[in-house]
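ZP: hey, is the guanosine-5',3'-tetraphosphate complex queued? I don't see it on the tracker
AM: it wasn't, my bad. submitting now with these inputs:
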Amino acid sequence: MEALEKRILRDGRALSEHVLLVDSFLNHQIDMELMRDIGAEFAERFRGAGIDRVATIEASGIAPAAMAALSLGVPLVVMKKAASSILNADALTTKVHSFTKNSDYTLMVKARFLPAGERVLFIDDFLAMGEAAFGAARLIAQAGCTLAGVGIVIEKSFQDGAKKLAEAGYDVYSLARISRMAEGVIEFA
Ligand code: G4P
C-alpha cells in the first residue's frame, strides 16, 4: 500500500535493526484517515473470503482492525492480554511468547464472541515472529472457527512470522513489508 509505505518513510523511525517507531500515526497517536484507508484495503482484499468477523489483539491492533470490520460490515472481537489466566468458564486462553518484548502473556477471548463455525479475519499492527498471530489462530481453532485470513499493517519480512504463517496454510496479506532496517534506514521488500 503506497500511502502507508510513504508514511512509514516520512514519519517512521528505525530505532535499530529490529524496532520501528510508528507512534505518531499507528500506535500512540493514530491517523484515522490512514486507518480508514487501511480498513478499506483489507476489506477489498478479503471481501470474497466469506468473513463473518474480524479479530485482533489489544491494544495497537484495534484501530486498523476496527476500520476493516467497519468496511466489511462485520463485528470486531478484541482478544485480551493478561499476565495470568483469569478463571472464567467462558474464556478460551493460550500462552504467547513475545520475542520483541521478551515476555509471555496469556491471550484470552470469551467463547461467546467467537461463535463456532464462523470465518474469522485476524488483523494486527505488526508481524514479527508470528507468535501473536499463531496464538490468535489457536483461540480461533479452540472456538471451532476458521482463520480465513491474516491482515497485517507492517510486516517485518526479515523475521520469520510471514513465512511460518504461509507454511501453516494461512492467507497472509501485509500492507507494508519491510525487508531491512538499520538505525535511520528502512527498506521495503
Ligand atoms: P510476533 O507476535 O509477530 O511474534 O511479534 P512480537 O511478539 O515480537 O511483537 C510483540 C509486540 O511488539 C506487539 O505489540 C507488536 O505490535 C510489537 N512490535 C513488534 N515489532 C515492533 C516494531 O518494530 N515496532 C513497534 N512499535 N512495535 C513492534 P503488543 O505487545 O501487542 O503491544 P500493543 O499492541 O499493546 O502495543
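AM: back. The mean pLDDT is 96.
ZP: great, adding it to the tracker
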